[in-house]
Amino acid sequence: MTHTSTKVGVLIGTRGLVMHALRERRAPDASQMLAIAERAEAGGLDSVWVGDSLVSKPRFEPVTALAAIAARTSRVRIGTAVMLPVIRPVVPLAHSLATLDVISNGRVIVGAGVGGGFTPDQKKDYSSAGVVPESRAGRLTEMVQAMKRLWTQDHVTFDGKHIRLDDVTLHPRPIQPGGVPILLGAHHRTGGDAQYRRAARHADGVIGITDSPEQWAEVIARVEDAAAAEGRDPDRLDRVFYLTVNIGRDVPKAAAEADDFLMSYYGVRHWEGRWGPWGPPEAIVERMAAYARAGARHLIVRFASWNQPAQLDAFLSDVVPAFKAMD
After folding, report:
1. 80 - beta bridge partners?
2. Which of 13, 187, 191, 206 falls between 20 and 30 A from 217, CA-CA?
3. DSSP one-letter code for 206
4. Is this structure's pTM higher than 0.90?
5. Residue range(s) defining the domain that contains residue 26
């Protein structure tokens, strides 16, 4: 795959918009989110994404945010990177996503994950939604199965450990044949073999974050092997990677800004060196190219910066053309 065929999108940091508003004791302003989405589309990018959390990391609710973005764009795919489906009831979530697909004329992609349940703040995301954190992996698997049936079948009955439906027919249906594509998170260091089987058996693709290019290539290989064992064509599964960068010729300044951003977001700096680079456009281009060579078909780029519009301008002018020119 050449880099000209690798899709490129950006993630809009809606958490940053909420955090700034809280610091300044004012209501959040969604205008920057919408302006970034419009700029990304006008600049030729393939997709726009938003994140998800409930109370641990306050931000805009993703389906609502994407509906607003859908109304202000016409071409870019819109997605979640990543959603935590298990903090939502399955039928209302399937209904919301189907409605969003209709509003956007079939442009929705759902990146979804099990999510963390290790810290008190993370656990509160689940307990606030009435979900036992330890149940989240099994619940996610059943939710994906149930939503795919709700999007394509009448009179859905589902008798799982976590999800039970009795003769449910849902409308509207998504515009996309087969329903909204779902990408499931899979990572080299965490999750064990079950995550590869879950993605291979139930998803339309896999989404990764924090892995090195070499680790990401191994994740893809594991998912492909699991898909083949399920009798599915591995080549039909999408492969999406989400990386975090800060673009700047002044490397110490870029690193300091990125560390401040990540500390505010997650309470850690540089995530043990697995995110980045922070530096000139050439470094960003090479890192993106490394993930493309490892097998990513779609790259999502997030800017570790409080000045998202400036980073997007630099990305569109100095990074994307150079990346697309590499073969």
Report:
1. 50, 110
2. 13
3. E
4. yes
5. 3-325
Number of domains in the chain: 1
- Take residue 16 and report the two structure tokens written for it: 């940053």
| Residue carrying the six token digits 């606030």 | 128
CATH at residue 183: 3.20.20.30
For range 276-281, the mean pLDDT: 96
Residue 202, CA distances (Å) to 13, 145, 149, 232, 251 in order: 28, 7, 11, 10, 42
DSSP per residue over 129-158, as a string? Answer: TT--GGGHHHHHHHHHHHHHHHTT-SSEEE
Q: 271 pLDDT exceeds 70?
A: no
For 20-39, write each residue's pLDDT tens digit: 889 899 999 999 999 999 99
**Helix 281-294 vs helix 213-229: crossing angle, to nearest 10:** 20
Show Cβ contacts of residue 175 under 8 Å, excluding neighbours closer than 6 positions: 101, 102, 105, 106
CA of 239: how far to CAs of 211, 287, 297, in Å? 13, 16, 5
Kindly give the pairing relationship between strand 182-185 and strand 108-112.
parallel
What is the DSSP track for 249-285? Answer: SSHHHHHHHHHHHHHHHHS-SGGGGTS--EE-HHHHH
Which tokens in the block code for residue 234? 């591995």
Q: Cα–Cα distance between 40 and 323 in angstroms, integer?
A: 16
* Measured CA angle at 62 (ends 185, 172), to 5 deg: 95
| CB-CB contact of 129 with 54 (8 Å) | yes
Q: Mind listing the pLDDT tens digit for each residue in 211-261?
A: 999 999 999 999 999 999 999 999 999 999 999 999 999 999 999 999 988
Percent of the chain surpassing pLDDT 70: 97
What local confidence, expressed as pLDDT, does residue 131 receive?
93
Q: Distances in Å between the alpha carbon of 281 and those of 25, 131, 285, 287, 299?
A: 35, 43, 6, 10, 16
Report the largest interatomic distance among the alpha carbons of the chain, rounded to a whole angstrom.
60
CA distances to 13, 96, 216, 277 from 61, rounded to whole Å, are 12, 12, 29, 28
